[in-house]
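Honest question from a wet-lab person: if I give you the sequences of every part of a complex, can you actually get the arrangement of the whole thing, not just the pieces? Trying it with mine:
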Amino acid sequence: MLSRVAENIYWMARYVERAEDTARMVGVNTNLLLDLPKGIAPGWRPLIDITGCNETYEASYGDYTERQVLKFLIADQDHGGSILSALRAGRENCRTIRDIVPREAWEQINELYLYGRDELQQGMTKKGRHGYLKQIILRCQTITGMLAGTMNHDRGYEFLRMGRNMERADMTTRIIDVRSANLLTDTPDLSPFDNIQWVSVLKSLTGYQMYRQSMQVRVRRGEVLRFLFQSEVFPRSLRHALRNIEASVEHLPNNEAAQRALHRTQRAVQSTQVQGLDTQGLHRFVDEIQLGLSDIHKELATAYFLPE
Amino acid sequence: MSIDWKNYPVGRFHDELIDSDNKARAHAKPLASFLEKMDEDELAARQAAADLSIKEMGITFTVYSQEEGTIDRAWPFDIIPRIIAKSEWDRIEAGLKQRVHALNLFIDDLYHEQKVIKDGVFPKEVLADSVNFRPQCIGVNPPLGIWAHICGSDLVRDKDGTVYVLEDNLRVPSGVSYMLENRLVTKRVFPELFDDYAPLPVDDYPSQLFDTLAALSPRPAEYPEVAVMTPGIYNSAYFEHSYLAQQMGCELVEGRDLFVGDDDCVYMRTVDGNSRVDVIYRRIDDLFLDPEAFRPDSTLGVPGLLRAWKAGKVALANAPGSGVADDKVVYAFVPEIIRYYLGEDPIIPNVPTYRCMYEKERDHVLANLDKLVVKPANESGGYGMLMGPMSTKAERETFADLIRHNPRNYIAQPTLSLSTVPTVVGKRVEPRHLDLRPFILSADKIQVTTGGLTRVALRKGSLVVNSSQGGGSKDTWIVETPEKA
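Yes, you can. This is the full assembly:
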């Protein structure tokens, strides 16, 4: 398999996952704000904090109003993390490898981009937003399922899987980092509003129901952290994403450096008592994981992608 | 209401399917009566079904527009096939083989002894001015002595029924994927027609192309690694590059996927490390192939590729420098070239061509600009042409200046009355002008596609068939002529 093709598949998967995750995050925040009284509500700024693009944002948007934040996250053409940019980039990556990707999957990706673009005005209205985001999420999931069901599970598929899981790992750690920062109290009994916010963290990662099933306790900070970082069964937990990447890397040649980077981060995730971390400790831990993810990406790029 | 051929306006043109008495030609009889039985709504519905299939199958070409940037557009297709009797086709096929054979001998000669010039058949000045002659290729011996492995020659038919070669495309001719896809669409849209007809199949082309390319491999004993090289997704023919790679089961590569090693071999960068490439079907112009040998600013090419080719470590199809015979001034000499190398008369004639480099011919052109088509030597896609009868005075003056300024760059031809073929327009059928581009493959043997790509000018009265300028295409059928009733 050509290095360029491997790279394009990897990024295609990352972008599709990014569009889905961003859509989910925006949807959940919309709901959260409806549940919280004005004084307590964290507003829209945390979503920009999650993307880590505050400087870019402030330069062209200024205030963190709902309308502006949504414009940045859904429609901004220059911001690579916006839903529309991610869909376009995913489509362009797919278009360059049209001979590799199953035809029907290409058609879905093409249609998803066209939907995202053509229905954008709907997505920007309060009334239409829910339907728009739901479609984006659903169609992204369709693509993931279609590729799983129609593409050979060969090298190319491993790169697809790695791209998807890298993006998930990245998004999960960012969401925890930002959302926990402004509501952490280390008291065992959370106020009802804090509780709602922890539920929303789970929901951003589509993990609420699975948390209840798997943890069998009410929503508590320590358990939520343990679930999102260390669950072996939840597909968006950090540990699960890393385990998936590991399984893909095992099938590739020349994989020693990537495996070393992976194992380092995996050890950190598994050996840390996440439920006991205080605000600062958690922040430091997330930073360490983010650096680890960036190392893994670098090793993959060095071993398999085109030289810069 | 259904189609009544009596009302079909044949006019003063030769129609491929209907004769001047408004009767179907022998090879078109079953098609004509099939269409007669179809009512107009049904006809429009079938055309709509074809358009939908094309959209779903993702058969596209890319156009660049100022407003929208690069867009992928659906391929315009007309459902009524263009039919050619096999007896006529056999002669055309022989003529094309003859022509390409001679052109390859000509190119090889130009890069070696230039006997054709020494013997006074081909003027030295024409070669000296050629923008497609590559001095870097002098003395190179490509495998089998063949330079133009894939040629697309455009054929037209004049009002008296004569078929002419209008031009030869020896650089990176495109369109063959549409020829293949058109047949698939016709099978979906008009399955009943195949009860009355058995058009010769066209789908051998990808394997013939692969065999042609494989025959050039510098490592003949092994299974050759063949790659299709594309400039990338913004190229108008990207669909075709991707399609052919897929059909032949080989890699679709861009310049940055390849590099030339110290051993002069070409390698692809793969997930498993570097892997040697034997044959490159390049769909990228000479000048962009190798920044070391040609344009240093090219980012599409591969540094050292020409060196690898000269060393015989990789085959390039078409060979760099083949375009020298694709020049529209060279075209005017092809009948002499055929006679010189093969000692035969050309089977398919050239369109009469005036060469502005000769004073007498230039004077004729300048005096008759309103009647002639003027073409620059080295443009394709119908750009930079003057269509005399449709031009304004100002356009003619501009061209007169251009010709006087650089006479060597221009040729002129009489406006042919291109033949027509019934084409669906809304719910009706009207004549539209067309041409035909067969593809000729040359390696250890010469093979011609069965028919080729029929391009049709969808605008009424228009003679421009290029897809970038309002042209569409049709399926092309070669059929055994039925017994005369």
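Two things worth pointing out. The interface with chain B takes residues 1-4, 6, 92, 95-96, 98-99, 103, 106-107, 110, 155, 252-254, 304, 306-307 of chain A (CB under 8 Å). Residues 1-151 of chain A form one domain.
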